[in-house]
Specification:
Helix content: 25-40%
Strand content: 25-35%
Distance between the termini: 29 Å
Radius of gyration: 14 Å
Strand order of the largest sheet: 3-2-1-6-5-4
Low-confidence stretches: none
Mean pLDDT: 83
CATH topology: PH-domain like
Order of helices and strands: HEEEEEEH
């Protein structure tokens, strides 16, 4: 089954990113990128982060089953990931925040390997 293969691929990408230091789980709240589970409520504005890389995962049986995993680094060195569904099922808050990051000229920094 293709879906299981893609699921494993996502797990492999997440494992690689974690090994590379992308350990924070990010979420968007009130227009800011927040570190989930942070005791001191760390958050960042679009001008404080860079999208280092992104990975797309598509469901073979349904094109609407696409998600994107972003590797993000904040200005203070915090590294983490955030994911979003693509299209109809996507979270508008995440899309809006990441569009602002891109609009600020912080498009992909391919230094991540």
């Amino acid at each position: 089954m293709q879906d299981k293969e893609e699921e494993r691929a996502l797990v492999n990408v997440e494992r690689k990113l974690t090994a590379d230091g992308y350990t924070a789980d990010f979420a968007v709240q009130d227009g800011r990128l927040c570190v989930m589970g942070s005791a001191n409520n760390v958050s960042y504005g679009p001008e404080e982060v860079t999208i280092v890389d992104f990975y797309r995962f598509e469901g073979e049986s349904n094109p609407d089953d696409m998600s994107i995993l972003y590797a993000i680094e904040a200005h203070d060195g915090t590294r983490g990931t955030i994911s979003n569904a693509f299209g109809t099922y996507g979270d508008d808050n995440i899309d809006t925040f990441l569009r602002k990051v891109e609009d600020l000229g912080k498009n992909l920094d391919k230094a991540h390997k």
